[in-house]
Amino acid sequence: MKWSSRPSATHNAVNPDTGYPSSSSPVAESAGAGLPATTPAWSATPDSEHGPLEPNGQPSSPTTHQQPPRKLAPSLSGRQLLNQRLQKYKLPAVFRVHLVGPPQQPRWKGSFWIKDTLLGCSRLEHSKAAAKEGAAMAALKWLNSNHYY
To answer: Contacts from 35-39 at CB under 8 Å and sequence distance 24+?
Structure first.
């Protein structure tokens, strides 16, 4: 087959370097098959069309602004979650706190009760708030294990 720069109407000449017909690109051929014609990623488009490129190959945009990270809503504490669960089932819970140890180094132990049933008990903590939180988390575990979702 003789190489010609001008393809005939019945036969397209094939470029031996690329393997594609010299009169059209593979994208143009696929457009004839009912597919939309798009510019392939490897094609050389002038900078005037897309502007200068970033080092990662993406077009740079002078108006690109990064959004600040979203702030998440504050998570609920164990006491708040326990209060919601107790209100859902209309359970009257009582919190009890006990001071343990000498006055120089007080330790606190908290517990949640429903009538005569102990729902959760905390470990010895350095503050009342930590004892309440520990007892609430233990009570939530008890409620979950007894199918009070």
So the answer is: none
For the chain, the domains span 78-145
Q: Label each residue of 107-147 as H, E or C.
A: EEEEEEEECCEEEEECCCECCHHHHHHHHHHHHHHHHHHCC
What is the DSSP-derived secondary structure letter of residue 14? B
Residues 6+ away with beta carbon under 8 Å from 2: none
Domain 78-145 indexed as CATH 3.30.160.20: yes
Residue 9: φ, ψ to 5°: -70, -30
Residues linked to residue 118 through DSSP beta bridges, in sequence order:
113
Q: Is the pTM of this model over 0.70?
A: no
Q: 22-57, pLDDT tens digit by residue?
A: 654 444 444 445 555 555 555 555 554 555 666 676
